[in-house]
Design brief:
By secondary structure, this protein is an all-alpha fold. The chain has 16 helices and no strands. It folds into 2 domains: 6-130, Receptor-associated Protein, CATH 1.20.81.30; 131-383, Type II secretion system (T2SS), domain F (Receptor-associated Protein, Up-down Bundle), CATH 1.20.81.30. It is extended, with a radius of gyration of 30 Å.
Length: 383
């Protein structure tokens, strides 16, 4: 209850013929602090909470007592505060899915699955499937993220080193070269020109690039048509395109399998799957598939009409699942196959990326060093 004092709560309960045993007073948390606490809750925290809650419910522990155990087993943190708020609302009579919808940490997919589990009376089973789905999704994201971190870090370090060399090292050598009184090699002149240009326009160029990048990112987020063109172009890139297609397919099939296995109708499950890939082309294809299902078309036939966006194996596995009555199982098998494909592709790319990055860095740094020391070698030969 929201009240100014405990006495106010006591008087209201007495009017309702309820005798309070214990009243716990809690200060209202400011809105900005709530937003800060929500931002601290990581996806892995939600995954851990879901797995623990599923285990406790499967063991026969009541829902309120399960949240009590989760609350006591955590150190003071944003997750502990969130669990306490959820338990308080459930104790007041609200359903779990209604409580979860009040918090930004849980998306519509999560809340819809919990609602389906509560309606079917199998919340522990649904939470177990949901935890498995979140773990697989988190592992897939970690795989892709780890493949991008290493080259991005190396590229950032290389750009920083090149900028420092052009800003401080090359001008020092330029002063030495001026005392030679001879014509410098073309490579040295090129590096000196780059250094002079960087000193004059480097800060302005970096600022323009940052502002332009921010503007393009903002416009792409606001304009659906730009996103569609960008995603179509990305899927056509030789290496990144198939990898992105496999990642989106794995997410799509994994989510649809989890929803369908939890008892959500296929058309409603497709509604929740639309935004799971983060790709506008897959979103449009999912809407088309959903519309065809409402007209009586099977899922496998609808997938075949999506302009080859989904790999042929997805439609074939769905056809087998529809014939055998095990569509959720076949979708899960498809998701596992493409998750393994993503893992193997990322592993191969990581193996090939290391020597390629070393060669590029060797050419850049070695070229700069050779350009700076080449006049000194020529002067030594003359002497």
């Amino acid at each position: 209850m929201q009240a100014n004092s405990k006495n106010e709560v006591t008087q209201w309960l007495k009017q309702q013929r309820i005798r309070p045993i214990r009243i716990q007073y809690q200060l209202e948390v400011p809105a900005w602090l709530k937003r800060t606490q929500k931002s601290r809750i990581q996806t892995r925290d939600i995954v851990q909470m879901t797995r623990q809650l599923a285990t406790l419910l499967h063991a026969g522990v009541p829902l309120l007592q399960s949240f009590d155990m989760l609350h006591k087993g955590l150190p003071p943190s944003a997750l502990q505060t969130l669990i306490h708020e959820i338990r308080t609302h459930i104790e007041s009579g609200m359903a779990l899915n209604q409580v979860l919808r009040k918090h930004d940490a849980f998306d519509a997919f999560y809340c819809n699955l919990v609602a389906a589990g509560e309606m079917a009376g199998m919340l522990d089973v649904v939470l177990d499937r949901l935890a498995h789905h979140l773990e697989k999704t988190q592992a897939l994201k970690s795989t892709v993220r780890s493949a991008l971190i290493y080259p991005s870090a190396i590229l950032a370090i290389a750009v920083t080193v090149l900028a420092l060399i052009l800003q401080f090292v090359v001008p020092a050598f330029q002063n030495i070269f001026m005392s030679f009184g001879t014509e410098l090699p073309w490579l040295t002149r090129l590096v000196i020109s780059l250094s002079e240009g960087f000193q004059l326009y480097g800060l302005v160029g970096i600022t323009v690039c940052i502002v332009a990048g921010w503007w393009v990112h903002h416009e792409v987020k606001q304009r659906i048509e730009w996103q569609r063109h960008l995603h179509r172009f990305w899927l056509r890139i030789p290496i990144a395109g198939p990898l992105t297609r496999h990642v989106c397919t794995a997410r799509w099939t994994r989510t649809l399998s989890t929803l369908f296995a939890a008892g959500v109708p296929l058309t409603e499950a497709l509604e929740a799957v639309q935004d799971v890939t983060g790709n506008t082309l897959f979103q449009a294809a999912t809407q088309s598939v959903q519309a065809q299902l409402m007209r009586g078309t099977s899922l496998s036939q609808a997938l075949e009409s999506t302009e080859q966006l989904f790999p042929p194996m997805v439609g074939q596995m769905c056809a087998i699942g529809e014939e055998s009555g095990a569509l959720d199982h076949m979708l899960a098998k498809t998701a596992e196959y493409y998750e393994r494909e993503v893992d193997s592709t990322v592993a191969r790319l990581s193996t090939l990326m290391e020597p390629f990055i070393m060669v590029v860095l060797g050419v850049l740094i070695g070229g700069l060093v050779m350009a700076l020391y080449l006049p000194i070698f020529q002067l030594g030969q003359v002497v």
